[in-house]
Amino acid sequence: MEEELAGAVCRHLRASGGSSSSRNVGRHLAASGKLAILKASYSGLYHFLAKRSDLFRIELPTSHRDTGNEYRVHLLADTSDTD
To answer: pTM of the prediction?
Structure first.
């Protein structure tokens, strides 16, 4: 299941030019029915992404004033074999 989740996030990030907001990643996963699975297994998107630091880089905002709890997610290198 972890590889399937990672593949879904990778595909979304590739389609978004290599990075996306955490909110949009979550929406993409929810639309495909994977967000609930991810939350049940990893307690949330942030924890999943942090566990897969070989694939993703998390960029936290310098201020939460405008973004709330939203952060940027970046795809590292070419991960085309994670589909």
So the answer is: 0.87
Domain definitions of the chain by residue range: 2-75
Question: Cα–Cα distances in Å, from 50 out to 10, 46, 53, 74, 83?
Answer: 14, 6, 5, 12, 19
| pLDDT (mean) for 16-26 | 97
Q: Which two tokens stand for residue 80?
A: 């085309």
Edge-to-edge strands of the sheet including 19-21?
A: 19-21, 72-75, 56-59
Residue 17 region, left (φ>0) first, then alpha (ψ -120 to 50), else beta? left
7 near 79, Cβ under 8 Å?
no
Q: Which two tokens stand for residue 26?
A: 């979550």
**What integer pLDDT is reported at residue 53 of this predicted model?**
96
